[in-house]
Specification:
Elements: H1 7-22, H2 34-42, H3 60-70, H4 75-78, H5 92-101, E1 106-107, E2 118-122, E3 132-136, E4 148-159, E5 165-175, E6 184-189
Antiparallel strand pairs: 1-6, 2-3, 2-6, 3-4, 4-5
Helix pairs in contact: 1-3, 2-3
Length: 191
């Protein structure tokens, strides 16, 4: 059972994600790499200034970590560690370890997701720990095989501010149930 949900913390994480979304953060060359470098810096990635173009780094976890730190989570929780098995938000694998070493932080059932939780999403038959890290902005309802949940995501293609479709910080609706073609819930993290 995950740690009790704190709506103030959850709302603060969602508010941080919404604020970044409203900035229309886009992958270069369409967008400025500055905000993405800040996400990487916040999470302790080495040489964030080297991020210049799409593909230089996978930064979905750095975006989620930035939102957590903006909401008051201690920066050392999300910072990249020297030993990958220690856990951080640099990859879905590392996030899995982080969620497991912090008592009560692992969410294994999609119905337990709440706004502001961090989730790993992936497809059936792909990576055991998922493929992408997102910030949940809604709770899956109603809960059945067709359930979905809303997200804010970095390093993704989806709906940007103003309804434009681009790659960067976007909104998405994800299915709860992963398939071979759609990334769905794998596990969640609530610090």
């Amino acid at each position: 059972m995950p740690t009790a949900y704190d709506p103030r913390r959850g709302n603060a994480v969602v508010a941080a994600a919404l604020a970044e979304w409203k900035k229309s953060v886009r992958e270069p060359p369409e967008g400025d790499p500055g905000p993405i470098r800040e996400y990487l810096r916040t999470c302790g990635f080495s040489h964030p200034e080297k991020y210049r173009a799409n593909g230089d780094r996978q930064w979905c976890g750095a975006f989620a970590g930035f939102c957590l730190v903006s909401s008051g989570v201690r920066p050392e929780v999300v910072e990249v560690k020297d030993i990958p098995e220690v856990g951080d938000l640099a990859s879905t694998y590392r996030l899995w370890h982080l969620a497991n070493i912090m008592p009560g932080c692992l969410i294994t059932r999609a119905p337990d997701l709440r706004p502001g939780d961090i989730a790993s999403v992936g497809r059936v038959g792909k990576f055991r720990f998922g493929e992408h890290i997102v910030v949940t902005s809604s709770r899956p309802t109603p809960f059945d095989d067709a359930s979905t949940f809303d997200t804010y995501e970095g390093n993704a293609t989806g709906t940007g501010f103003g309804g434009l479709r681009y790659e960067g910080v976007v909104r998405r609706t994800r299915p709860v149930m992963p398939s071979s073609s759609a990334k769905g819930f794998i596990f969640g993290f609530r610090p």
